[in-house]
Amino acid sequence: MLIESLIVSISRDPFNPELNFQAATEYEKLGQTASAVSFYLRTAEYGYESHQDLVYLSLLRLASCFNDQNDRLATVSNSLLQAVAYQPHKAEAYFLLSEFHERQKNWQECYTFAAIGLGLDPKDYRLQFEKAVSGWWIGRAEESKELFQSLLKRKDLLPHYKKAIELNLDSI
Amino acid sequence: MNLVKKAVKFGGKLAPLVISEGLTSGTGLMNPSVFIDNDGDILVNLRHVNYTLYHAESTQRFPSRWGPLGYLHPEKDQRLVTENYVCRLNSDLEITDHARVEMLELHTPIWEFVGLEDARLVQWDGEYSIIGVRRDTTTNGVGRMEKSIIKLDKSKWSAKEVKRTRIPAPDPNESYCEKNWMPVVERPNQFIKWTSPVEVVELQGNKCIQLAVKQGIKPNKDQRGGSQVIKWGNVYISVTHEVDLFKNYLEQKDGLYRHRLCVWDNQLNLVGLGQPFSFLNGNIEFCAGAAVFEGDLLISFGFQDNAAFILRTPKAVVEDMIVEALDAN
User: How close, in Å, is residue B185 to chain A by CA atoms?
Assistant: First the structure.
């Protein structure tokens, strides 16, 4: 079992962010999200100065693990906000925050985080989608339609995004 | 050096204990208790909880909303719920069978800590028991050790509680919470309840009788159970834990756990106490089981309440630890 060899390696080098991240990833693959949380968090704490990309990714994965456990919304949000604070110039956490608030129907928060993310990565269609969805619910109907229509012209959409855009355009 | 590194270096083996997330929703598997039964099977009681322990270590740059240490239960369910699985391991320490212990429904839990926690597995007079603390029978969380006799059907691999005894503290039985008593594997219904002074008690029917209270070695920190107390050559040994609980400047709780090897003589006098050690350099670790297997020592422990492991510790390493413990006192 890969986890076994990773934990043995961690016993020799307990604070190694890369080993802790690998162990977390393996536990997450098995659906053992609590175990994954422990090792992602160790990655984040012990890699703070030396492994910034891994730390950022660990915070995002922490959010995902807690999301998978259901009914831990405050912690999902907290982990994503910590990622934003750690590396505010990266768009991914803004997208995840926007998506998180979409699920909660917090439309202004969804719109705001999408807008911030697009300021960093204007071509990210996932952020454009979130902005379009939330825009409708905060009174920006024309902007929302225009965004959806322009998104439909893109060739790089994943199928489920394309379908969701079409459904949204049909219903607004 | 942590114990896993040392044990593996000298030929030991570490094995993670994992059962399907389809049964557990991915939340914590923790504090396993290993035991070798009369058939020679390696059994483990594995605790599953409905929460995830969040513990930020090091400089704690990423605490939870509630601080560096928190029990992250579902937000709409404040309870911290425990259930237990009895597992069988092969000689490579892989789980080959597991079954959730079907508990008797004797009462409706009325406190937030629900279930039998940190249960140690034993087989006394042929009957399997899981013995841990239950705190859900009063509205203020009074904890008492409970002995749950379980019927283990090895052909169907099922486990069912058939009898439960809530063990009172010795008279006057007024303490708030009793937990982590260490069952003495070779002495049915006997426990080391406390280590300084050493307090040995015995469950007799529904009563708990104090058999001995004697001051032996005085640890500089309270030693709390712990694994079972098991025979090792001509002495008894157990693994105990000590804990520093403290708060940061925001009054948020935090903790540091370390373990030690205790050596006991035939009268259960504490005659040796080893140096503190960790298993994996985690701040929160917890040992709830030990058993002799093919001359080596199996030690089962939880890591941050979120993961469970079993460590085969070579005989020579254990002997060194015993000598160290005896020499230190």
Answer: 29
Which CATH number does the domain housing residue B93 bear? 2.115.10.20
Number of domains in chain B: 1
User: Smallest Cα–Cα separation from B84: which of B103, B67, B105, B65?
Assistant: B103
- The token duo for B171 is 């008279």
pLDDT digits (tens, 9 = 90+) for A35-87: 999 999 999 999 999 999 999 999 999 999 999 999 999 999 999 999 999 99
Q: Which of B226, B227, B37, B202 is nearest to B125 (CA)?
A: B37
pLDDT in tens, chain B (329 residues): 899 999 999 999 999 999 988 888 999 999 999 999 999 999 999 999 999 999 999 999 999 999 999 999 999 999 999 999 999 999 999 999 999 999 999 999 999 999 999 999 999 999 999 999 999 999 999 999 999 999 999 999 999 999 999 999 999 999 999 999 999 999 999 999 999 899 999 999 999 999 999 988 999 999 999 999 999 999 999 999 999 999 999 999 999 999 999 999 999 999 999 999 999 999 999 999 999 999 999 999 999 999 999 999 999 999 999 999 999 87
Residue pairs spanning A and B at CB distance below 8 A: 125
The CA distance from A13 to the nearest CA of chain B, in Å, is 9
**A91-172: CATH topology:** 1.25.40
Give chain B positions within 8 Å (CB) of A70.
Answer: 25, 74
Give the integer Cα–Cα distance in Å for B295 and B312: 10
Answer whether A34 sits within 8 Å of B4, measured CB to CB.
Answer: no
Nearest CA in chain B to A59: B62
Task: Tell me, yes or no, if B29 comes closer than 8 A to chain A by beta carbon.
Answer: yes
Nearest to B65 by CA among A96, A83, A106, A76: A76
Q: Are A165 and A129 in contact (CB under 8 A)?
A: yes
Residues of B in contact with A30 (CB under 8 A): 18, 21
Direct distance between the N- and C-terminal alpha carbons of chain B, in angstroms, rounded to an integer: 21
Q: What angle do CA A125, A130, A134 make, to 5 degrees?
A: 150
Whether residue A45 and residue B77 make contact (CB cut-off 8 A), yes or no, is no
- In chain A, what are the domain boundaries? 1-89, 91-172
CATH topology of domain A1-89: 1.25.40
Give exposure, B260-296, as e/b (b: 16+ Cβ within 10 Å). Answer: bbbbbeeebbbbbbbeebbbbbbbbbbbbbbbbbeeb
